[in-house]
Amino acid sequence: MEGEGNFSQVALPLFDGESYDLWSVRMQSYLEGVDLWDAVEENYVVQPLPENPTMAQIKNHKEGKTRKAKAKSCLFAGVSKMIQTRIMTLKSPKEIWEFLKEEYAGDDKIRGIHVLNLRREFELQRMKESETIKEYSNKLLSIANKIKLLESDFADSRIVEKILVTVPKKYEASIASLENTKDLSKITLAEVIHALQAQEQQRLMRQEHAVEGALPAKSQQARTWKRKNYKKNHPTSNESSANNHNKGNGKRKSYPPCQHCGKNGSPSIQMLEEIRCKM
Q1: DSSP element (H, E) containing 100
Q2: Closest CA relative to residue 129, chosen from 74, 174, 169
Q3: Are residues 55 and 113 part of one domain?
Q4: Does a structural domain hold residue 161?
Q5: Do the Cβ atoms of 260 and 277 come closer than 8 Å?
Q6: Is the pLDDT of residue 1 over 50?
Q7: Quick one: 136 exposed, middle or buried, by C-beta within 10 A (0-12, 13-18, 19+)?
Q8: Which pLDDT tens digit goes with each residue over 234-279?
Q9: Per-residue DSSP letter, 15
Q10: Does 58 share its domain with 137?
């Protein structure tokens, strides 16, 4: 079928020894999509053909062998070369799957310790002032999903409670609104995230408008200061003449004394004194 051909082109999830639980979920989903998961899960035995087999028996025998071979091929292609060397001697896809689970998922005791550590990590989370609701909720969801992958229950209501009690005080208005309009014991995670994100976006919009309004005011102040400074350092011609006149009125010029009588004065006064001295 055309749909199966397109799905088979989806890249296989690659396991390199890390995050086995996530890889196993993705690989199982892939094998189910190409109708090969039963060859891994059931580990059926392909019976040899009887003498004088019918066409139906030949077809079923061939399909059974082909499906097991394809499933085994997918598992080999879905692990790194280092891990391939550890499973290359295993015969069936079921054996490969069980080996990987035992080797990398660990026993129940190890998984229990891992779950305990993840729960402790979840409880210690607090939203930072610099974080957004999306970043914080994604962090909590990531931890919760890891716990679920280890086959441990973790309800979304715990994530809702965690968000409501650990977000900064700037979200108190949205939380109070939710308390007044909804039953917090029944509110969904999506509703909480959307409500807090709405307040977050409104705050950002107000801050942007405040910045945009402050820029023209600062620009006007800068232009006013430049004009005043320019006028102070570059007076007009009338202002310059007035300033020079005022300077002249405020301070008398000094002239050299008369060479006959030694008196000071302007050139005209000195000329009169000079005539008097000669008489």
Answers
A1: helix 93-100
A2: 169
A3: no
A4: yes
A5: yes
A6: no
A7: buried
A8: 655 555 555 555 555 544 555 566 565 565 555 555 555 555 555 5
A9: B
A10: no
Find tokens 């008097």 and name the residue.
276
Reference 132, options 163, 178, 158; nearest CA is: 163
Among candidate residues 203, 224, 257, the one where a domain is terminated: 203
Whether residues 143 and 194 fall in one domain: yes
Beta bridge partners of 79: 15
Residue 43's pLDDT band (boundaries 50, 70, 90)?
Answer: confident
The answer as to whether 249 is a domain residue is no
Q: HSE on the CB side for 208, CA within 13 Å? A: 6
- Is there a domain that residue 26 lies in? yes
Please tell me the total count of domains within the chain.
2
User: Domain check: are 79 and 151 in the same one?
Assistant: no
Paired tokens of 194 = 């959307």
Q: Which domain holds residue 12?
A: 2-105
Say if 87 falls within a structural domain. Answer: yes
In three-state secondary structure terms, 235 is coil
The pLDDT of residue 250: 47
Tokens 């607090």 identify what position?
126
